[in-house]
Fold this protein.
Amino acid sequence: MILDETIPRTLETLVSELTLPAYRGARVEAWLFEDEAARRAAESRLAAAGVEARLRSAYKPLLHFFLEEVDLATLASVTIRYPLYPNAPCQRFLLEAYPLAALLKEAKTTFEAGDQEELEYFLTLVRKDRTMEEHRVFAPNRLHVDLLGQTLLSPTGWLKTAGHAGGGDTDCRLATDYESAFERVIAAVSTHSWPAVEPYFEELRIRIDLPGRDRPLGYGEETVSLHEALHEDVYFSLLEIFQHRAGRTAGDRTFQPGQIVADVRAYGDTLRVRVSAEPLTTEETVVPRQPFATAPTPLGIAQIQRELAALGGTSFEARSRAGRAVQGIYRRGTEAAVLISAGQHGNETSGVVGALRAAEALAARLGAHFAVIPLENPDGYALHLRLSAHQPRHMLHAARYTAFGDDLEYRVNEPLYELSARHEALRLTGAKLHVNLHGYPSHEWTRPLSGYIPRNFEMWTIPRGFFLIMRHHAAWRKPALRLVDAVTARLAALPGLIEYNRQHLSVFEVHTGETAFTMINDFPCLISEEDRYAVPMTLITEFPDETIYGEAFVFAHTAQMEAALAAYGAYNTISGSAAG
């Protein structure tokens, strides 16, 4: 056990102090990392003690202003001037306002960059009855230097008091329990004595019990979740600290510290933090078998293996760090060979089902020539199933990488473990096209205590629909472009997919100010020359699938299947015309 502490809840400490006789008649504003129910209950207790209090959210304060203090149905138009501030990206506070563009869809909404360094949003609200209001919404932040030596502007607690008998008005930062939990984890891990050589541990487990509940926003999969945000910040901050300790650059995906498991749960009324080094978990989460063509939830590992075996063909496998099998099937045929893989990142689950469905369809095709690896990272996937039993609506990036803590595709040193299955598939097939099915967050991704925007993953902060990435060798640009055109044309025929993309892109553009994509047949695409891949063409799919279930999950893995089948068909057409 490296750390085991109970942290006093700032909300309770604040209420205890403000109910002292000296504060009777005071006016109080405070910004805390608490859900609305807890803040309203505390306001009532303060009112009973003669204190006029308004307790607001320190996390996404502008969004909470509209959710808690404005009747959205009465609005005709909204103009929001957001802060521009040093030590923060220019779109930081525009992103922090997400997803207001969707929630205010009945009102004409305009975002404007401010020309001031004040940490305030300036609002002009015009009602349907033509009355107008102006508001200023404070966004409490602090400048601080993290353990990597970078200066960050991060949300923080704040306290303003006036009119109390004790005298002396207050307007200052309020260090909160939420921030303290994060800081204590970082301090405990960074000062612990670790081995000199990576990996430093098998599983580093961070269990945080945090009061409060998530708040669904009624738009897509968007939810305000302090628990999820803390998970993300703890996981990636610790990964960065270990990278820094080893002399690696931040974001180095070859680095192998071990499996970092951030487990943040909504539990009780007390904030408790525990950090411990544990053996790797090899037990599997039991998932009931389901018809995989219409599966509403991620498949269990046992079912993935059974469905793969049912395809027939030549089987091959590798082993993960924890000893789990990475299985694949090779089907020899007369057509041009293609490799289909999924599950490189363990929390991206729709591609796993999509790969199996595509392989089943190809197995019934005369002459089909392919290999499929539906789950490349079983250790990460197993962790995702384990964590999602408690937080099913969270993106759970602690399950993204392998039990070594690296991204298997970037692994360079022997033994290759999981990656050797991909190498074997390419040896068997000689494939010149690799279709790699991926996913990404279906809702906003933040790191509120480390500058808000996820470092090294800035382009993934909010969803923009189903999009494609094509990476090709220099001599393969023309066939790569032809293939992307053919795949997007087929995907455009999938009912509802174009509309799905347009909805996401419209909100994405408002809150980022740009698209940064090439649009091909109404699909966002990123196309680049990349010679580091073993195959001349790698088509990567990106569906916002993290934390989706039911019809949304079926829609996702259907789109993944269609993309794989479209790529296989297009590649064989191109190969048949000798264009490659």
